[in-house]
Amino acid sequence: MKNAINWFEIPVKDFDRAKTFYEAVFETKMDTMTMEEMGQTMAFFPADWENGIGGGIAFGPGYEPSDKGSLIYLNGGDDLEKPLSRVEKAGGKVILPKTSLGQHGFMGQFIDTEGNRVAFHSRS
Predict the structure, then answer these.
(1) CATH class for the domain made up of 8-122
(2) Hey, is 58 helix, strand or coil?
């Protein structure tokens, strides 16, 4: 097994609001896919689909945002302070600023526009 995680989905209540939030935080556009037969809509974070780990936001039956339970760490790039600094401007709330993990880099946590607790990780 190369990675313990190979896919993730962040549940959302308001798809357009959540997509706008994450596009602003990451300064990117997310591709959207609707699976009508399942009643689900997803938008995907940029990923190296050949060698990396992918994921996105998900809307539909069975998806309920929460600040409890599993915590997803998104790639904070070269310095997670950059995307973390855009969280509140995009409508979220930083709940843990950039924090050292010693030799393991840095992390920071936030609540997104949907009420999910999410984190960033970076090496510096």
Answers:
(1) alpha beta
(2) strand
The Cα-based distances of 96 to 87, 99, 107, 114, 118 in angstroms read 12, 7, 8, 17, 10
Reported as a single tens digit per residue, the pLDDT across 43-66 is: 999 998 778 889 999 999 999 999
Largest CA distance in the chain: 47
Residue 15 and residue 113: Cα distance in Å, rounded?
Answer: 10
- Tokens representing 82 are 């950059």
Task: Please report, to the nearest 10 degrees, the dihedral formed by the alpha carbons of residues 7, 101, 78, 88 taken in order.
Answer: 80
Contact 45, 22 (CB under 8 A): yes
**Per-domain residue ranges of the chain:** 8-122
Task: Note the pLDDT tens digit of each residue in 68-91.
Answer: 999 999 999 999 999 999 999 999
| Whether the model pTM is above 0.85 | yes
